[in-house]
Amino acid sequence: MVTIRADEISNIIRERIEQYNREVKIVNTGDEASQTISKKSKKPQYSRFTQQELPACKPILTPGLVITTLISIGIIFVPIGLGSLSASEHVVEIVDRYDDACIPSNGDDEAAKRERLSFIQNAKTNKTCIRNLVVPKKMKHPIHVYYQLDNFYQNHRRYVKSRSDRQYRSPGSEGDTKTCAPESEVDDHRPIVPCGLIAWSLFNDTYGISTKDNPIPINKKDIAWQSDKNSKFGSNVYPKNFQKQDPVGGGKLNESLPLSEQEDLLVWMRTAALPNFRKLYGRIETDLEADEKITVVIQNNYNTYSFDSKKQLVLSTTTWIGGKNDFLGKAYISVGGTCLFLAIAFILTYVIKPRPLGDPAYLSWNLNSATR
């Protein structure tokens, strides 16, 4: 059995204390004493932020505060929802699907699909289509003309990345086409301006609207975002080698106009987040009376038949919430109604079975096993 004497124990303790004092240095600054740990320590520097000692608002959720908040949200949201629904009901829309009516064959078998593709891809076929529409209610100007595409995934990763913003902004960067594949260069390695799949697939159906044989002009000015015209597309960048090789994608561009003035392109280049979307084609600056018959002459050029997409022409008025949108009003009413329902439920609970605020008897460790 090994025994240790008292003087040996005191020597060991003294050595440990001296070792600790060598590792920890105490530095006094003014009235405060702070400890600087040796390089081995990973203790972070003190701050009120890291120690969560900053001033904070910590409201106590009393029944009165919760009920008042819920009632306030309900009183605010329900009228906004009703106003949104009312405004949406005042929007007058004409929606006409024409892709199936402006094609020779409407069957779903393989032969019909091949016939549709052959028709739309043949540059010699007459693709003029006439549609007769009736105005359901009086439409006050400005009347917005949209084209709507369904099942068209502009948010596909390769499709979205196939563009060159530097090339679109500056003529000195017209050779910057590395991100534009496969529509980056023509066969003799000259760059395409604007390059990329988005520009290549530009929508190229056209619409001519008339009533009683009187043409109605469609204003296509200022249909694109002003920021796109001023910042994203240069006023001295002109189209080059665009749609000059097979296969041809969509619409062609005027090579005498800079990209910033070709607003159909700018509207198309702002890609949609969802597969079903509308894009602005132009505006009608005159009123259309109720029950008035209008004739739409459509050039059905855009190929949506190879991927089972749909094309629709939309004429729509606007209100203070924009176009027709019932979802916004229903969402406000749902949230407001839910808050009012919860407020009433909390009031009944508080009246029927009240409990003192902060009663320690309801703490878990104060409850007996029978009430758990």
Brief characterization of the structure:
With 372 residues, the protein is α+β, with helices and mostly antiparallel strands. It has nine helices and eleven strands. A hairpin with a 2-residue loop joins β1 (24-29) and β2 (32-37).
Describe what this molecule looks like in 3D:
The structure is a single chain. This protein has helices spanning 6-23, 63-89, 110-121, 157-161, 165-169, 197-200, 226-232, 263-269, 326-352; strands spanning 24-29, 32-37, 93-97, 128-134, 143-150, 206-211, 214-216, 218-219, 277-284, 293-299, 310-316. It has 372 residues and is of the alpha+beta class. Helix 2 (63-89) packs antiparallel against helix 9. The strands form three sheets. The chain has a five-stranded antiparallel beta sheet. It has a four-stranded antiparallel beta sheet with strand order 4-10-6-7, with no helix packed on it. It is flat, with a radius of gyration of 35 Å. Helices cover 30% and strands 17% of the residues. Strand 6 and strand 7 form a beta hairpin. The longest helix is centred in the first third of the chain and has 27 residues, at 63-89.
